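fyi for ur records
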Amino acid sequence: MMRKDLLDDLEDYFSVTISELDQHYEVISFLAISPAQGIHTLDYYLDEDITEVTMLNSQEDALYYFINQLSSAKETYISPTPVHSKVNRTYLYRLEQPVNVKYSVSCGLGIVRERFKQRNYFLYSINPSYRNEPERVEELIPDFLRLKLYCQLVNGHMQIDKRLRKQWRENKQLLISFLFANHEEVIAELEDIFK
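which gave:
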């Protein structure tokens, strides 16, 4: 099924200060770092989908669970996805799409949830490109491209974003530059979707 634009699934977006983010939201997405293999999603190392564990537990409980699941023989470090400290504000995005930690982190997006409304999830850019100038929408283009990649991966072959497919065919390297983790796996998956 073709779809005009996967950002039709963008329900809302807004900016918050870093202190508001710390006070009202909890990061629930994780990444794994290994000196031998670099940065990957935690799913990559645990060989399981971690989405359910992150959704049903606090950040601290989920982190404890993941640490205990890793083999002690592996030199791997687990961390919540970072919130970039060089900006005063970040943008949060709410999508109609289901939450998928592997795809979000792969596309350079972290996940937060409201501390007091545990069912409200938002994506944010792990490495934002904006310069603390509020409401400059053109600075959000890299975030929107990450969101489009995320939505396409979640939808797979069921709904193909024609514009994103065209961008992939014409300027694949630009889109690849927005990936954060699991590069080879995500590129292969997108190649299959867009063939």
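Residues 2-194 form one domain. thats all i got for now
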